[in-house]
Amino acid sequence: MPEQTAKKIILAVDDMPVNLAIIRNILCTDYDLRPLKSAKTALRLMDTLRPDLIILDVEMPEMSGLEFFNLIRSNPSHPEQKDIPVIFVSSHEVETIVAGAGNGGIQDYLVKPVDPATLLQKINSLLNTERTSSRD
């Protein structure tokens, strides 16, 4: 088996620093995590960076996660963005997330507080990685 390749890039977007810190602690060893506090900042970054996966809070000021999701799914300047897996993270019920995602569909979601093992399992599944972690 070849040596470990470059880490997959994960964009985590949440307006609450404590949530970003939790996600950073869970993922920093296995992934190249890019934590951002606003969807608008994430949208600008995605002009020059294509993450392998996005972890996205639903409810944020200025631009909600659902607005951000719908924008990247329909961006004619960057059609490749529609294929980036997205995991929504929210304190809301899943029905709210699904309804707000429109026709773009969602890959997965987690209800806060995030369980580390569940988050890693969902990421590994979406990225088809074989990472194993002793964090439970």
Rounded to the nearest angstrom, the distance between the terminal CA atoms is 27 Å
Global structural class: alpha/beta
Name of the CATH class: Alpha Beta
Order of helices and strands: EHEHEHEHEH
CATH topology, by name, is: Rossmann fold
Number of helices: 5
The structural domain count equals: 1
Specify the CATH architecture.
3-Layer(aba) Sandwich
Kindly state the mean pLDDT as a whole number? 84
In this structure, how is the largest beta sheet organized? Answer: 5 strands, parallel
Give the quaternary arrangement of the chains: single chain
Strand residues, percent: 15-25%
By CATH, the superfamily comes out as: Response regulator
Outline the low-pLDDT stretches.
130-136
Number of DSSP-assigned strands? 5
Global outline: globular
Tell me the helix content. 25-40%
Radius of gyration: 14 Å
Order of neighbouring strands in the sheet with most strands: 2-1-3-4-5
Summarize the structure.
The chain is of the alpha/beta class and 136 residues long. Helices cover 34% and strands 18% of the residues.
Write up what this structure looks like.
With 136 residues, the chain is α/β, with parallel strands linked by helices. It has a single domain (9-127), classed as Rossmann fold. 34% of the residues lie in helices and 18% in strands. A 5-stranded parallel β-sheet has the order 2-1-3-4-5. The longest helix has 12 residues, at 116-127. It starts with 8 loop residues before the first strand and ends in a 9-residue tail after the last helix.
